[in-house]
TrEMBL record:
Residues 1-20 form the signal peptide. The keyword Signal applies. InterPro entries: PepSY-like. Pfam families: PepSY_like (PF11396). It comes from the Bacteria. Keywords: Signal. This is PepSY-like domain-containing protein. Residues 54-135 form the Putative beta-lactamase-inhibitor-like PepSY-like domain.
Amino acid sequence: MKKGIQLMLALGIMAIGANAQKVNESKVPANVKSAFQKAHPGVTGVKWEMEKDNYEAAFTANDVKTSEVYNAKGQLQETEVAVRFNDLPEAVRTKLKGLKVTETAKITRANGQVVFEAEVKGKDLLFDEKGNLIKP
């Protein structure tokens, strides 16, 4: 019961924070595009979104869905890589037992912190490697 309440609370919090908007590449600052291109030369088909005051580049590289978030100065804030459910830490998989998970990812933040994301009922839940739910 407690786990269910925690997950519902997290879903509510995530719904409030989800506000990404598509943005035309021509509206992305040159330093952001330059930082992305330097990190990923030759990658095409990039889709850009605004995530609060940051720019998110979504792309596929080596058959892996990836997204990166850059601040307006062109500094990388985090990298999100799609992973299979079975590649999540066991503690995270245990917390998600019985829930319908539609997407999973590993997120590495600029400070080196790694968190795991699971989409449940259209909302993103974040966990640390021990399976603890993280606030957005």
